[in-house]
Amino acid sequence: MIKVFAIIVTYNPNLVQLKLQLDEICPQVAGCVYVDNGSENRESLREFCSRLSKTTSWILNHENAGIAKAQNQGIDKAKKMGATHILLLDQDSIPCSDMVKALSAPYMQYKNIGATGPVIVNAYTKSEELFGIRISGLRILHIPLTTELNDVSYIISSGCMIPIEVIDKVGGMNDDMFIDGVDFEWCLRARNYGYKILQCTSAKLIHELGNGNSDKVLSHSPNREYYIVRNSFKMSRMKHIPCLHRVRRFAMGVLRMLSSLRPGRMEYFKYALKGAIEGFF
């Protein structure tokens, strides 16, 4: 019998939105584990926690430990609470009413599934994701999601369902990566172990994609640029990632550094350079 626990990592969350998410996910899972990464509204979160059911647990970190470590904390807690599968969710993701059922179904029929993920519905435009991602040499292919189950190379962490037994074999999220590329690296690691990553078209997740800024290259903080560049170089050295994609990751790291050399963006370049040095050496 499948026993799914949702793991939600929070950081300065909107409590109204968090309650909406809770109302949608609670009927679908055996329990929830919230892991907070040092939010400024900790006291409001404590009050929020005090009203939750016994099947919902909280871990309140004193600082931002990164999404990977927080997810691992949640996974460990869910295991102790008897979970057979975990469902990772971002604080801004709202699952549709039958999402967990749809993500669970493949595990009843097939073996060697590392993770299942939903089709993402853009919270701003309401448009649905039409393509999955598949790595082929140096290329990243967009595969039309034309069947119920689509074999892909990667799914984002929010809405991703993973069996505990797969985590026990493959390992948890890479704490050292902190944030960028955590889900990508884990999916490729699982595939290296022979597991499939499936995207299910009948499962839908409303998710806030991006931050609404038209500047898609540098629309975040310099510190975030550090992690993006650093982790690109880190992944270029990971043996479980296909060789040609490692070349692509290395090139992407270099290109991001060059893109930081735009007028008024010197601070980004400094952080990118630091990330490149720490990621490659």
Which terms would index this structure?
281 residues; alpha/beta; five-stranded mixed β-sheet; four-stranded mixed β-sheet; 11 strands; 39% helix
Report on this model:
The protein is built from 9 helices and 11 strands. It has 281 residues and is of the alpha/beta class. Strands 3-2-1-4-10 form a 5-stranded mixed β-sheet, with helices on both faces. Strands 5, 6, 9 and 11 form a 4-stranded mixed β-sheet that branches. The protein has a two-stranded antiparallel sheet with strand order 7-8. The protein is globular.
Task: Give the topology.
Elements lengths: L3 E7 L4 H11 L5 E7 L4 H9 L5 E6 L5 H14 L4 E6 L3 E2 L3 H11 L3 E10 L8 E6 L2 E6 L4 E4 L7 E4 H7 L11 H11 L3 E12 L14 H14 L7 H17 L6 H15 L1
Parallel strand pairs: 1-2, 1-4, 2-3, 6-11
Antiparallel strand pairs: 4-10, 5-11, 7-8, 9-11
Helix pairs in contact: 7-8, 7-9, 8-9
- Structural class call reads alpha/beta
Q: What series of H and E elements makes up the topology?
A: EHEHEHEEHEEEEEHHEHHH
Distance linking N and C termini: 46 Å
The number of distinct helices, counting runs of at least 4 residues, comes to 9
**Strand fraction band?**
15-25%
User: Sheet bearing the most strands, described?
Assistant: 5 strands, mixed
Mean pLDDT: 92
Radius of gyration: 19 Å
The general outline is globular
Assign a percent range to the helix content. Answer: 25-40%
Poorly predicted sequence stretches spanning 5 or more consecutive residues: 211-218
Number of strands: 11
Strand arrangement in the largest pleated sheet: 3-2-1-4-10
